[in-house]
Amino acid sequence: MASDEREEVPKKLEEMSVGFIGAGRMAQALCRGFINTGLIKSSSVIASDLDSNMLNYIGELGVKTTKNNKEVVQNCDLIVIAVKPHIVTPILKEVSHLVSRRNLFVSIAAGVTLDTIENYLPPKTRVIRVMPNTPALIQTGASVFAPGKHALDNDSDVVATLLSSIGICAETSEQMMDAVTGLSGSGPAYGYMAIESMADGGVKMGLPRDLAVKLAAQTLMGAAKMVLDTGKHPGQLKDEVCSPGGTTIAAVHSLEKSGFRASLIAAVEAATERSKELGRKEEEGSSRQQKRI
Ligand SMILES: NC(=O)C1=CN([C@@H]2O[C@H](COP(=O)(O)OP(=O)(O)OC[C@H]3O[C@@H](n4cnc5c(N)ncnc54)[C@H](O)[C@@H]3O)[C@@H](O)[C@H]2O)C=CC1
Ligand SMILES: O=C(O)[C@@H]1CCC=N1
């Protein structure tokens, strides 16, 4: 342990101070989500970033802001690493000597493995890898987490409580995390593209743009809620919309001819492969680091 072994590991979420290193889009979504649910008080949060604009945005939530990442580690129990994947290891190198048993690290970086993170931190550091998504901002997130070797059961409970407050949350083994990234981490973008394209279709057929966007968004939200609330297979729900000889089956045929399903499967595959690639890059750096130690 780099510093005080005697320091107590905090047990209750409400007693914990929470830090964000990197105060960009995903940190803002999580931070706003956590504060809105009341699980975290803004006065218990510190966020660091190099960019003053980002600090101003997150500061609007009433959290303390700083340009000094070390301040976050020194003052927070739970630290969310929310920088781009290639910045994760430089940050860990920068703060590692300040890490104590008090700190729980939660990384949301795509691809970056628990091994890589643990290698840059003092032995036995508690780490949890999380893949959230931006709808966390409106408490409709989908998050998955995988605990590291030294994470305590209590750490998983704390993270599960936080993530469940901003949407659905599941624990999984780390090997699933790249596929999770390809599906739900990146997935909101596919949904936005679908909404935009359906709205374009409506506009092409004569609808005003604002009505077309609203109808497309509400329709996808309704379809998503039907899947979650009824528990029915999506194929069955699709069949229930298709009247024999009707409009929907004509559209379904058109979608199949243009490879709609294959496109989405390939999209999830491409994002998963990219997540793996990002992880490998950081892992190579981490093995070089280990050889030097
Ligand atoms: N945007 C998304 O939908 C999701 C993003 N993620 C992950 O979250 C992480 C952050 O992504 P975004 O929020 O989208 O990126 P972002 O670019 O909006 O935020 C990253 C922030 O880190 C700051 N930063 C850069 N170098 C820094 C340093 N040395 N010290 C402190 N701050 C520094 C940047 O100024 C920026 O504000 C990434 O690793 C990404 O893989 C995970 C799930 C979803
Ligand atoms: O595009 C990215 O790399 C990040 C990870 C998941 C969503 N956004």
UniProtKB/TrEMBL annotation:
* Keyword NADP on entry: yes
Its UniProt pathway annotation is: Amino-acid biosynthesis; L-proline biosynthesis; L-proline from L-glutamate 5-semialdehyde: step 1/1
User: Could you tell me where this protein is found in the cell?
Assistant: Cytoplasm
Domain Pyrroline-5-carboxylate reductase catalytic N-terminal, residue spans = 18-111
Basic and acidic residues compositional bias: what residue ranges?
Answer: 271-286
- What residues does the Pyrroline-5-carboxylate reductase dimerisation domain cover? 174-278
- Where mainly found? cytoplasm
Q: Name the source's superkingdom.
A: Eukaryota
| Record-listed NADP(+) binding positions | 21-26, 82-85
One family name in Pfam for this protein? P5CR_dimer
Q: Supply the InterPro entries for this chain.
A: 6-PGluconate_DH-like_C_sf, NAD(P)-bd_dom_sf, P5C_Rdtase_cat_N, P5CR-like_CS, P5CR_dimer, Pyrroline-COOH_reductase
This entry's Enzyme Commission designation comes to 1.5.1.2
Record field: catalytic activity: L-proline + NAD(+) = (S)-1-pyrroline-5-carboxylate + NADH + 2 H(+); L-proline + NADP(+) = (S)-1-pyrroline-5-carboxylate + NADPH + 2 H(+)
Entry keyword set:
Amino-acid biosynthesis, Cytoplasm, NADP, Oxidoreductase, Proline biosynthesis
GO-annotated cellular components: cytoplasm
* UniProt-annotated binding residues for NADPH: 69
- Work out whether the entry's keyword set contains Isomerase: no
Ranges for the region named Disordered are 271-293
**SUPFAM superfamilies (alphabetical):** 6-phosphogluconate dehydrogenase C-terminal domain-like (SSF48179), NAD(P)-binding Rossmann-fold domains (SSF51735)
Gene Ontology terms, MF aspect = pyrroline-5-carboxylate reductase activity
User: What's an example Gene Ontology biological process for this entry?
Assistant: L-proline biosynthetic process
Q: Which NCBIfam families match?
A: proC
Instruction: State the similarity comment.
Output: Belongs to the pyrroline-5-carboxylate reductase family.
What protein does this entry describe?
Pyrroline-5-carboxylate reductase
Organism name: Lingula anatina
- Tell me the organism's taxonomic lineage: Eukaryota, Metazoa, Spiralia, Lophotrochozoa, Brachiopoda
Q: Tell me the gene name.
A: LOC106177708
